[in-house]
Amino acid sequence: MARQKKLPPPPPGAPLWLATYGDMVTLILTFFILLFSFSSIDVQKFEKMIQSFKGSLGIMPGGATVQRNSAAFGGLSGKDAGESKKSTTSVEEVAKNLKNYLKSQGLDKGVEVRIDQKGVTISFSE
Q1: H or E stretch including 44?
Q2: How far apart are alpha carbons 110 and 119 in whole angstroms?
Q3: Whole-model pTM over 0.85
Q4: Fewest CB atoms less than 10 Å from the CB: which of 27, 60, 62, 125?
Q5: Is residue 49 in some structural domain?
Q6: Which secondary-structure segment (H or E) carries 121?
């Protein structure tokens, strides 16, 4: 049998067709943005679309908050140092209650609860 000749290595960089493909995708995107800019948006249909995305992305409605005062997450202006300390105490209280609950259920060995800059962090060990 005859041996096949080795092909020369391809030139470095992206293939030439990639630039044309990128231009085509950019033009199609521009075309659809132009169509969208001429359209009129029905608020009810837009809300249904947003709810559809929320459901498919795993954002579920409802649920209870950990803090009784939900205004702490609202970003009220004019907070002084004393009021922000109350919020930190509340996070510590939540962490303490969680640790006590885990201990009463016998789950404290597999779960670690700690407070960091973001709030209460729960880690599960294997």
Answers
A1: helix 43-56
A2: 20
A3: no
A4: 62
A5: yes
A6: strand 120-124
